[in-house]
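Project channel, design review

CF: Before we commit to the Bordetella bronchialis constructs, I'd like one complete example in the thread so the newer folks can see what an input/output pair looks like. Taking NAD(P)-dependent oxidoreductase.
RD: sounds good, go ahead.
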Amino acid sequence: MQKVMLVTGASRGIGAATAIMAAQRGYAVCVNYKQNAGAAEAVVARIAAAGGRAIAVQADMADEAQIRSLFSAIDSHFGRLDGLVNNAGILERQSPLRDMDAARLRRILEVNVVSVFACCREAVRRMSTRDGGQGGVIVNVSSMAARLGSPGEYIDYAASKGAIDTLTIGLSKEVADEGIRVNAVRPGVIDTEIHASGGEPGRVERVKHSVPLRRGGTAEEVAGAIMWFFTPEAAYSTGAFLDVSGGR
Ligand code: NAP
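CF: and here is what came back for NAD(P)-dependent oxidoreductase:
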């Protein structure tokens, strides 16, 4: 039977590239998005045009009820879940910590951390061999920011990704004997629209000289790393981190 993967935040950028690559590798894909239905439907159409199977499901990762509905939609449409890519993530305008308020921190943590816990919970309940599931793979999209700290830009975002790294370590051990592997990919500076939401659409151009490989990465390069964890070659990797950062 065809395996099913949920990619959160898959209407563009790294999520869209991952959804398309997953479909190319035989997965039926749930393309989650928050507001850009047109872009999500375009990803679904591209997958369908290549002979794949996908649905677009709107759900705001900041809302636990919507996350539950998202998984219910997968249950009713596909009837199984084999893979989860926790990709949806946000950052806010570049700012030193001295100008950050608690509301900003809560917005970041809701989408980048709380939602990932909730999605992992829903996925584990469906995949765990302890509960009659068939096992599965979870890949969390962290960031090199978790290790670099993003001073002067967004320490809040960097710290949220640090939480994702710790979640990955803990959950990987918690569910290892339930047929579920949990890993993370840490992208560096990747050429997507996320930098515009930080207030600097041209950020990749500015910082690429600080990258040892002297360029930004592509969404497809990150998607390839994410998808590696779904291959048989990754069968012994759990609690692992794959940095896709050009050496940064
Ligand atoms: P992006 O181009 O800004 O795309 C973000 C995606 O997430 C969109 O599909 C968006 O959907 C969705 N999204 C945003 N808020 C959401 C919410 N509340 N609920 C559901 N979906 C939501 O981002 P990206 O650069 O591809 O980043 C993807 C992941 O990689 C993020 O976790 C990010 O932190 C991480 N990352 C990126 C970089 C980089 O340099 N680009 C580096 C390190 C890590 P809509 O279109 O509907 O709004």
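RD: helpful, thanks. The chain has one domain: 4-242.
CF: The domain at 4-242 is CATH 3.40.50.720 (Rossmann fold).
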